[in-house]
Amino acid sequence: MTIKKFGTAHWEGKIKEGRGLISTESGALKDQPYGFNTRFEGKSGSNPEELIGAAHAACFTMALSLILGDAELTATALDTKATVSLEKQDGGFAIPVIHLDLTGVVPGATQEKFAELAQKAKAGCPVSKLFKADITLDVKLQG
Coiled-coil segments, which residues (predicted)? Predict the structure, then answer.
């Protein structure tokens, strides 16, 4: 089985003065502006790194939900923040690190079991498998 989803980007102009629009197939993003200033200068608008972070956080969290279910645990809440690091390196820019911060409320789980299952989700998440970046993870069980 193959599932295909898409996102689109439109760009006009040179790198610093130009601007673009990002959209998703679902319409969750529709002509969201992005450009040099939103990526490197903190201006309002989107950028590829935050989109990668959102996709990674969503995928990892869903994978963890599945793994928790396989362990006969159900999360009351899972919150994941994926911080994507864009760094200037020799030959241009790269994303060498993505850090996942996970906080969960999982009745019946211990911190150790929760961390073990989270590591399994990090390794098995399809988006994690996509990246060559060093993906780190901090886990905190609440409740």
Answer: none
